[in-house]
Amino acid sequence: MVARKMFTVSRVAKEMGKHLSVWRRTQRMTAQEMASRAGVSVATISKLENGDDTVSLRTFLNVCHALGCLDKVEEAVNPLYNDETALRIMNSGVKQRIRHK
Fold first, then answer.
1. Domain at 19, CATH number
2. Positive or negative CA dihedral for 14, 15, 21, 25?
């Protein structure tokens, strides 16, 4: 039996931080250059790359933009890029508001 990984915010933040670090280093960009391009401090880049889950969404998106991967992030969370979800939306639509009785 294959063990399932627990997807917690902390674990995903650490993994995403590692991924962002790899993106930066493959582009031969220093943390200082990244900070400058994203409009944040080097300390903030360090926090993000080390998986600090308190870094703001705006900062995360600015860093992704600076790395040239913002479009991939948008696609990852867009339900229309998932065939099954897109089909469900086309067939039944999406309610504007979900109310629990």
1. 1.10.260.40
2. positive
